[in-house]
Design a protein that fits this description.
Blueprint: E1 3-7, E2 11-13, E3 18-25, E4 28-39, E5 46-51, E6 57-59, E7 67-72, E8 77-82, E9 91-103, E10 106-113, E11 117-122
Parallel strand pairs: 2-11
Antiparallel strand pairs: 1-3, 3-8, 4-5, 4-9, 5-6, 7-8, 9-10, 9-11
C-alpha cells in the first residue's frame, strides 16, 4: 500500500540544471532515511545522495558540489537538485526510503523504492 513516486526526469543539455521529486503515500507512521540512487545500462545501481531524518547528508564523490538532497517531512517528500549536469549523469534515478509502516499487527520498518525516472544529459 505504501508508494514512492518520482517525477522530474527529462532531457537536458550538459551544464544545465534539473530537480527531481519523490513523494511517499500510504499507511506511514514515520520516514527515517531517504536517498537517491541511479543506474545506467550495464552498470550497477549506485548511491547518489542520502539524507537522515535529522537532515544530515552524504553524497557520492562524483556528484559532490553539484547535487543537493533535501526533504520536506510535512509533504513526505525528498528532492534532488542537480546542477552542472554532465553526460555521465545520464541514468534512471530511483527514490528510496526507510519507512515505519502502520500495520494491523503493529509497526514495521521496510525499505521502499520508487519506479524510477529517466534523466538524459546531452552534449
Amino acid at each position: 500500500q505504501v508508494q514512492l513516486v518520482e517525477s522530474g526526469g527529462k532531457l537536458v543539455q550538459a551544464g544545465g540544471s534539473l530537480t527531481l521529486s519523490c513523494a511517499a503515500s500510504g499507511s506511514i507512521f514515520n520516514i527515517n532515511g531517504m536517498a537517491w540512487y541511479r543506474q545506467a545500462p550495464g552498470n550497477e545501481r549506485e548511491l547518489v545522495a542520502h539524507i537522515t531524518s535529522g537532515g544530515s547528508t552524504n553524497y557520492a564523490d562524483s556528484v559532490k558540489g553539484r547535487f543537493t538532497i533535501s526533504r520536506d517531512n510535512a509533504k513526505k517528500a525528498v528532492y534532488l537538485q542537480m546542477n552542472s549536469l554532465k553526460p555521465e549523469d545520464t541514468a534512471v534515478y530511483y527514490c528510496n526510503a526507510e519507512i515505519l509502516v502502520q500495520r494491523p499487527a503493529g509497526l514495521g520498518q521496510f525499505s521502499y523504492w520508487g519506479q524510477g525516472t529517466q534523466v538524459t544529459v546531452s552534449s
